[in-house]
Amino acid sequence: MYLNSEVETALLGQRLGEQLFAGSTVILTGDLGAGKTSLSKGIAKGLGVNEMVKSPTYTIVREYHSGRLPFYHMDIYRTANQVQDLELDDYFYGDGVTVVEWGELLGNYLPESFLKITLLQSSAGRNVNFEAHGLRYQPIIDDVEEYFLNE
Ligand SMILES: Nc1ncnc2c1ncn2[C@@H]1O[C@H](COP(=O)(O)OP(=O)(O)OP(=O)(O)O)[C@@H](O)[C@H]1O
Ligand SMILES: [Mg+2]
After folding, report:
1. How far apart are CA 22 and CA 2, in angstroms?
2. 2-150 falls under which CATH superfamily?
3. pLDDT over threshold 90, residue 23
4. Cβ(8) – ligand 1 distance below 6 Å
5. What is the pLDDT of residues 3-12, one digit of tens each?
């Protein structure tokens, strides 16, 4: 899938956020500045979060509770070596939606099932690639791919 602009990145996030479920995890991977935070903000919007979503770069995890489900937003780029101190499974197997920027760095700490989204710079826009780990994510991928086809 190709996203022409930040607006489309946000739209993809929103469409995802409308469908993600309690205990879902989204791993965002890609270059520096690929659009991971933009996508996260869209997911928050799709969940109905009305607080301001800020990049969690220096806090590891920010929690938002104003949406349909709790939204847990992490960025582990600078903190991957500290994640064992976090009760990550409380997030992954909890009642909310967890989004982890640079989540591939979790290695063995990744949950059993998750949706992995890779964003890569490509000319002025971004290429997006989806990978479902676990059965519940494929229908969501199918939906967003169809949605952007028809846009
Ligand atoms: N589809 C897109 N096309 C062009 N620019 C985009 C697109 N999506 C997001 N951007 C822009 O890319 C820039 C970086 O976005 P963002 O901060 O979300 O990336 P990031 O992956 O979170 O970066 P970091 O690696 O620093 O956490 C922003 O200026 C944003 O507007
Ligand atoms: Mg970011």
Report:
1. 28
2. P-loop containing nucleotide triphosphate hydrolases (3.40.50.300)
3. yes
4. yes
5. 999 999 999 9
